[in-house]
Amino acid sequence: MRVISGKFKSHSLKSVPHSNTRPTTDKVKEALFHFLGPYFDGGKALDLFAGSGNLGIEGLSRGMDHVTFVDKDSKAIKTIHENIKLLGIAEKCEVFRNDAFRALKAASNREKTFDYVFLDPPYGKISYSKLLHVLNDEKLLNNGAIVICEHAYDDKLNDLPQEFQEIKQDAYSKSISITILQYDLGGN
C-alpha cells in the first residue's frame, strides 16, 4: 500500500497486521481522488473506520489541512500512528480509538466540522443511512461537504437525509462501489 500522489507520493504505508481490515485498493483510491480533484486547497477531513489511515493520508498528501482518524480496532490505531510518524505529519492529525457513533457524538461535543468524510465501514455491518443522519443531525458537516461511501457492489444507499445529494456512483469491480454525496443546506 502506498501514497499515490502529492507531497508523499510513492511513500509506502503500513497495513493493519492480522486484521479483517479491507484496505481501499490503489485503483479505487486513484479513481476516487481523480474525481475529487487531484489536489486540495486545504480542508478538514474525517476518516471514519480509518483502518491504516490510507484515505486520510492520501488527502493530506494532496493538500488537505487536517484529518481526524477514527477506528475502534487497537491494531488499526497503532498502524495509523506508525504511518503518521513515518511521514512526519502528526501536527495535521488527530487519532481516536472509538466506535463510529460515539466518535461522531464526541466530535459534535467539541464543535468539529468537516469538509470531507471518508466512510468505509465493514460491508453489511453498519447502516450508511444511520451514519449520514448522525452527521446531519449533529451538524458535523460544512455546507458543500463531500462524503465518500465505499460499499459492497450490491448495497444501495437508501433513506438518506434530504441534505445529501448523490453526485457520483461507480462500481470498481463486482464487489466494490463508491458513492459520492454532497451536503447541501439549501444555499448552493
TrEMBL record:
InterPro entries reported in the protein's UniProt record: DNA_methylase_N6_adenine_CS, RNA_MeTrfase_RsmD, SAM-dependent_MTases_sf
Molecular function via GO: methyltransferase activity; nucleic acid binding
Alphabetical list of NCBIfam families matching this protein: 16S rRNA (guanine(966)-N(2))-methyltransferase RsmD
Residues forming coiled coils: none
Protein name (Swiss-Prot/TrEMBL): 16S rRNA (Guanine(966)-N(2))-methyltransferase RsmD
Region named Disordered: 1-23
GO biological process: rRNA methylation
TM helices/strands, residue ranges: none
Stored Pfam families: Cons_hypoth95
Source taxonomy: Bacteria, Bacillati, Bacillota, Bacilli, Bacillales
